[in-house]
């Protein structure tokens, strides 16, 4: 477990969702909500002022979306943990975000306790892999391996 305070920021264009996450996490041990951002542009501005340890970030946001934001964050703030928290459970999106540098990928239907555990796990072990991420990554590996085998077979023929 973490032994010091973990500073968390929330980036989502829906205020009611940000409020809900803040309320769900407000009494959790070791956590402090540092700030909230209403879109990717606001997120990048606030990062320049004060860096959190963890960002809970949506993918679809106005101005700068989560896909572009994760790329920008990884270039300038490589130590910040990024937990994608979105309504999209598309396997291609999951693998794309993990390849781009997300430390975890959760859907907005995730129980608050699992979000808390993902934060702690990312801080202690760098990554949090749930069933959703495991399936997406395994599928990509299988498809990738199948493609390599097909290419090798084609060369033989």
Q: What does this entry look like structurally?
A:
With 157 residues, the chain is of the alpha/beta class. The protein has one domain: Rossmann fold (3-Layer(aba) Sandwich). The protein has six helices and five strands; from the N terminus they run E-H-E-H-E-H-E-H-E-H-H. It has helices at residues 15-25, 40-49, 66-76, 91-100, 112-125, 131-156, and strands at residues 6-11, 31-37, 54-57, 81-86, 104-107. The protein has a five-stranded parallel beta sheet, sandwiched between helices.
Low-confidence stretches: none
Shape: globular
Order of helices and strands: EHEHEHEHEHH
State mean pLDDT (0 to 100 scale): 87
Number of helices: 6
Query: How many strand segments?
Result: 5
Rg from alpha-carbon coordinates: 17 Å
Task: Give the domain tally.
Answer: 1
* Percent range of helical residues: 40-55%
CATH superfamily: Response regulator
- β-strand percent reads 15-25%
Structural features:
globular; Rossmann fold; 5-stranded parallel β-sheet; single chain
Summarize the structure.
This protein is α/β, with parallel strands linked by helices. The chain has helices spanning 15-25, 40-49, 66-76, 91-100, 112-125, 131-156; strands spanning 6-11, 31-37, 54-57, 81-86, 104-107.
């Amino acid at each position: 477990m973490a032994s010091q305070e973990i500073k968390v920021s929330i980036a989502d264009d829906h205020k009611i969702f940000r409020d809900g996450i803040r309320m769900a996490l407000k009494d959790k041990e070791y956590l402090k909500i540092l700030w909230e951002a209403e879109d990717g542009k606001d997120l990048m501005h606030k990062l320049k002022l004060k860096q959190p340890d963890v960002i809970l970030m949506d993918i679809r946001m106005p101005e700068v979306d989560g896909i572009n934001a994760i790329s920008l964050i990884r270039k300038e703030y490589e130590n910040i943990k990024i937990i994608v928290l979105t309504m999209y459970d598309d396997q291609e999106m999951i693998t794309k975000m993990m390849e781009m540098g997300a430390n975890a990928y959760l859907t907005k239907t995730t129980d608050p306790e699992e979000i808390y555990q993902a934060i702690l796990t990312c801080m202690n072990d760098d990554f949090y892999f749930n069933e959703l991420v495991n399936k997406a990554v395994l599928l990509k590996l299988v498809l990738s391996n199948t493609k390599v085998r097909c290419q090798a077979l084609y060369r033989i023929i």
